Amino acid sequence: MGTQRGKNKGFENLVDGQVLPQPAYQGEFTEGEIVQYYNPESMTWAERIYLPYVLAGLGLTAKVFLRNMVTWFVWLTYWVRGKGAEAKRGATTIYYPHEMRPDFSPVNRGKHILTMRDNDDPQCVACYMCATACPAFCIHIVAGEHPDPAIEKYPVRFDIEIDKCIFCGYCEEACPVDAIRLTTDVHLVDYKRERMVYDREYLLTWKPTYVEEEHVYPGDRPRKS
Amino acid sequence: MVVDPVIPIGRARGGGPAEELPSGYELIKEQGLESQVYTTKLDAVLGWARKFSLFQYPFVTACCGMEFMAVSANHYDTDRFGAALPRFSPRQSDMLMVVGTIVHKQAPVLKTVYDQMCDPKWVVAVGACAVSGGFYQNYTSVAGCDKIIPVDVYIPGCPPRPETILDGLLKLQEKIQHQRHHVV
């Protein structure tokens, strides 16, 4: 009971059955008393026979189930009229392979792309800033001399190990010419690690890695600055 | 920055089709048994059955486990693909999900867990650390769990988004559907 709690206050660290030490003040307990810790008997009569509360729990589960079911049927009446997007669904599940979540972040960092000049050459000047900033060391550049003296350098090879990348976005922050960007494309799964090294030509295609007709991508296009 | 010239340039494709295995009829035809043996689509039936009853063993060691839990929750329901029930005994499971960094001290444990699983079994590496070691390029971390066990599907990302993990699950189902299933 409450008095029992107050009596044991300050002695919570003692093990059950241990003999108490000296009393803290006069009348706290008798010296040599065996401590017995137990929960106060606070359950009511209805709680002790359990049955009303079992039924109450079942009722809550049934209420949620029936509410979702009715919501689904109401959604179905909208759906047969071709207005399925207007009504609320009975579940929060996002049916992923057929739809993306509506609040998918437009600034989500996914697959990399290389931006292009007007003649479809990469805008990259092979300055190694992204490869230096990369904490995972997953960008590998081989620089070559560009025929245009105003550009000086261009990447002969630009490989990104997408299996090592942690999508931190430091490369696009470090880039001085806005040559590398991260798209929202997250479909990067593969069966082989050898194929997960994205080379220069693939990064210049800007195509999402996983294209199906019913997919709705909120942001496949490269981000505008 | 020293560029490693050993990196293979392969035509990178983010997710190609599953490997085409020779059909049972072609294997029988190689041995000249086509007049004696009749091939059926048992592989297809078994693949269909097995790909929708994946019992997973989550070998969760690091922060990717949070995203893995998000996939199991009701927004991205893995129960829709029949892969909802995690079995915490490797003997009852057939999909090993390596979620998180594998350090060298854990490597024998992972190998033991994989060996304890009964055939058929598949391995999915979730997260950059499990796929390739990620940015832990030091003396403690294994550079990808495929150094220890064979991996079927790689799911990159740090952590991967739930969509990416579900992509990996769908890819694994596609692989199971198209692979050989040895009954005896």
Q: State the largest interface.
A: A-B, 48 and 47 residues
Say how many strands of chain A there are. 5
Radius of gyration of chain B: 18 Å
Number of strands of chain B: 4
What percent of the residues of chain B sit in helical stretches (DSSP H or I)?
25-40%
Explain what you see:
The complex is a heterodimer of chains A (225) and B (184). Chain A has 225 residues and is an alpha+beta fold. Chain A has three domains: 1-41, no CATH class; 45-86, no CATH class; 105-218, Alpha-Beta Plaits (2-Layer Sandwich). Helices cover 24% and strands 11% of the residues of chain A. Chain A has six helices and five strands, in the order H-H-H-E-H-E-E-H-E-E-H. Chain A has helices at 2-7, 45-48, 51-80, 129-133, 170-174, 200-203; strands spanning 112-114, 139-145, 153-161, 180-182, 197-198. In chain A, strands 2-3-5 form a three-stranded antiparallel sheet. A two-stranded antiparallel ribbon of chain A has the order 1-4. The termini of chain A are far apart. Mean pLDDT of chain A is 79; it is low at 1-6 and 211-225. With 184 residues, chain B is of the alpha/beta class. Chain B is built from six helices and four strands; from the N terminus they run H-H-E-H-E-H-E-H-E-H. In chain B, strand 1 (56-60), helix 3 and strand 2 (95-99) form a beta-alpha-beta unit. The longest helix of chain B has 17 residues, at 162-178. Classes of the chains: A alpha+beta (225), B alpha/beta (184). At the A-B interface, strand 2, strand 3 and strand 5 of A face helix 5, strand 4 and helix 6 of B.
